[in-house]
Write a structure and sequence with these properties.
This is PASTA domain-containing protein. The protein has 74 residues and is an alpha+beta fold. It contains two helices and three strands. It has one domain: Trypsin Inhibitor V, Chain A (2-Layer Sandwich), CATH 3.30.10. The radius of gyration is 15 Å and the shape is elongated.
Amino acid sequence: MDQEMLSVPVPDVVGLSDEEAKRILEQHGFVVKSVEITKSFKDGQPEGGCRVVRQHASGQDVQLMLAFQKWVCS
C-alpha cells in the first residue's frame, strides 16, 4: 500500500447529512461500504433526512450509522 494513503486521515462527517458525508468521503478517496439507519423505540414515523451519528473506518473503507433528523410520534 502506498505510504501516502496511510497518512490521510478520515474526514469527520459526524453530524452531516448522509449525502454530504458520502460526497466528502468519496472526494477524499474513501469508499462507503455500509450504511445503517437507526430506528427510534418510540411509536411514530421518521421525518426529514438522515444525519451521520457514527462512523468507523478500516483502511479506505468507511461504515456510516445514520439517524433520522426528526421522529414524529402519534
